[in-house]
């Protein structure tokens, strides 16, 4: 599925690259910690797929849409983690799905700091397009612009808070 909209935001982590493990951070993030990283975050948990892949289940409300994301691990490195979800979306128009790819990368800036990149890509499903069609929405451009604006605002809010949580854990030596 091709990208409908996407956003990338960066933040500084004042910890050495070697002390960070993005994949472990994502799959061990506690519910309360997730909630503290955005006013939109409602809940988070983790599970395992039938074939043994880790999952991160996140619930958030963005612009009146309740999103239930079922992220399954795709790339699992210390400095690069990517997960994919067929996410449930509940809005005033009804219930549908979106495809969301969430990718975190960290790169070294100095011996004591890194840059975190938080990249989110949203793709539409046939079910989402059908819901819009049933609601009489034929022009997707206003939908794309609205979705992009909301995604960027959310990413700008959560990325520095994710970075702060990662930094705290990295400096405590949790991933040695």
Give an overview of the whole structure.
The model has no long low-confidence stretch (mean pLDDT 97). The chain is of the alpha+beta class and 176 residues long. The longest helix has 33 residues, at 140-172. The chain has one domain (5-172): START domain (Alpha-D-Glucose-1,6-Bisphosphate, Chain A, domain 4, 2-Layer Sandwich), CATH 3.30.530.20. The chain has helices spanning 22-28, 31-36, 126-134, 140-172; strands spanning 5-13, 41-48, 54-62, 65-76, 80-91, 94-110, 113-124. The chain is built from 4 helices and 7 strands. The chain is 31% helix and 45% strand.
The strand count comes to 7
Report the major sheet: 7 strands, antiparallel
Taking pLDDT < 50 over at least 5 consecutive residues as the criterion, the unreliable ranges are none
Q: Output the CATH topology.
A: Alpha-D-Glucose-1,6-Bisphosphate, Chain A, domain 4
Strand content: 35-45%
Overall average residue pLDDT: 97
Could you say which overall geometry the principal axes of the C-alpha atoms support? elongated
Could you state the order of secondary-structure elements as H and E? EHHEEEEEEHH
Read across the widest sheet, the strand sequence of neighbours is 1-7-6-5-4-3-2
């Amino acid at each position: 599925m091709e990208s409908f909209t996407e956003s990338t935001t960066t933040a500084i982590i004042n910890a050495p690259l070697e002390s960070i493990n993005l994949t472990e951070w994502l799959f061990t993030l506690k519910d309360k910690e997730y909630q503290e990283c955005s006013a939109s975050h409602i809940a988070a948990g983790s599970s395992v797929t039938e074939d043994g892949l880790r999952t991160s289940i996140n619930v958030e409300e963005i612009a009146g849409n309740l999103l239930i994301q079922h992220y399954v691990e795709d790339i699992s490195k210390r400095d690069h983690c990517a997960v994919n979800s067929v996410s449930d979306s509940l809005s005033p128009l009804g219930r549908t799905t979106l495809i969301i790819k969430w990718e975190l990368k960290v790169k070294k800036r100095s011996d004591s700091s890194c840059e975190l990149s938080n990249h989110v890509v949203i793709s539409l499903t046939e079910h989402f397009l059908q819901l819009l069609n049933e609601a009489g929405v034929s022009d997707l451009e206003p939908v794309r612009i609205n979705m992009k604006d909301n995604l960027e605002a959310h990413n700008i809010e959560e990325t520095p808070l994710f970075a702060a949580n990662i930094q705290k854990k990295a400096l405590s030596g949790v991933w040695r």
